[in-house]
Amino acid sequence: MSDIRKRVGKNGTTYQVRYADRASKTGYAYKTFDTARAARAFREDAAARAQASSASASSMSVEQAVKEWLDICEKEGLNGRDPVTAYTLENYEYRASFIKGYAWTKELRELTAPDIAEFRSWLLRSDMSRDLAGKVLSSFQSMMKEMTVRGRIPINCAAGISVRSDSRYDEPVTIPTKSEIKALLKAADDLSNAKNQTVAKPWQRYRPMLYLAVDSGMRPQEYLAVARSSLGENGIKVERAIEGDGSRISVTKTPTGRRFIDLTDTTINMVRHYAENIAVLPPTEN
């Protein structure tokens, strides 16, 4: 709400407009004009802008916001990052189907924290797993954050509302000891050199992968997608990875995933021997 105040001072009569301003500590800002006509024009223009802005923001539904968020993920990327891969987008669309499937009774701008808590309850009481419920809510959080940054809503009322991933039933991860890893590699050596060729042939493929995993620390989706051309004199270049559904080879998940890893002579010679003598390569592989 705004009003006009007439001021009389040494320099004559002026007209001060007081109008709402969220950036101000008091919630109001002031602008002075020489004539009442100019002050009224400013007040009417400010009111029209505020009304148009409010109408535009309040008219966006949750479904429309989700659609815009998915479009941003695919074509721009969130928060300055690269656009998501086709596999990630497919996952986001799957999670979005649950968000759009909920019976939202309010427009996006009208949502409050209790509304988001009710949505979380609906997710947790449905047939989906707790892990999936957490991922759906995480995507909803991402959407709300993006809509806030782009000015679709004034505040993110979903902030702080999540599904905790930790559980009393979680078992701690047990990392193999050095002696256990040595025993694993020795078993791979023995099996790949077994007299029984039915046993030896598959282990001649598994053995280089085990050595490469142990020596490099690469993820399975990375060492399974290594190209022959990535093998160097002293190590290996990580440039690509298998996407989560296993259907295609793509780039690494992040740019920092592209790296060079030094390998021991034993591992690099074993992997090269496999690539040149055992692996079946398509005609286009280099």
Automatic annotation (TrEMBL):
<feature type="domain" description="Core-binding (CB)">
    <location>
        <begin position="60"/>
        <end position="148"/>
    </location>
</feature>
<dbReference type="InterPro" id="IPR044068">
    <property type="entry name" value="CB"/>
</dbReference>
<dbReference type="GO" id="GO:0015074">
    <property type="term" value="P:DNA integration"/>
</dbReference>
<dbReference type="GO" id="GO:0003677">
    <property type="term" value="F:DNA binding"/>
</dbReference>
<keyword id="KW-0229">DNA integration</keyword>
<protein>
    <recommendedName>
        <fullName>Core-binding (CB) domain-containing protein</fullName>
    </recommendedName>
</protein>
<dbReference type="GO" id="GO:0006310">
    <property type="term" value="P:DNA recombination"/>
</dbReference>
<dbReference type="InterPro" id="IPR013762">
    <property type="entry name" value="Integrase-like_cat_sf"/>
</dbReference>
<keyword id="KW-0233">DNA recombination</keyword>
<keyword id="KW-0238">DNA-binding</keyword>
<dbReference type="InterPro" id="IPR011010">
    <property type="entry name" value="DNA_brk_join_enz"/>
</dbReference>
<dbReference type="InterPro" id="IPR010998">
    <property type="entry name" value="Integrase_recombinase_N"/>
</dbReference>
